[in-house]
Design goal:
Length: 71
């Protein structure tokens, strides 16, 4: 009995099946960037709302990059 017959088709997968295609990797990176932008925007909105609720508080300015697509 050969090794491939004993181990079955699960062991015959190539390296290409273990890594996502390039377009999926790119989409994950874009989604990650958009998620960070959304989280920062939500935090800034919450901070702004808190300023109206609690007078006399000051917030630190948020430093933003000139372009979201720069790395």
């Amino acid at each position: 009995m050969q090794v491939s017959q004993r181990l079955g088709p699960a062991r015959e997968k190539t390296a290409s099946t273990l890594h996502p295609p390039a377009h999926l990797k790119t989409q994950l990176e874009i989604n990650g960037r958009n998620n960070l932008i959304q989280q920062k925007t939500a935090a800034a909105m919450l901070a702004q709302q808190m300023q109206f609720m609690i007078p006399g508080t000051t917030m630190q300015p948020v430093v933003r990059k000139s372009s979201i697509y720069q790395q």
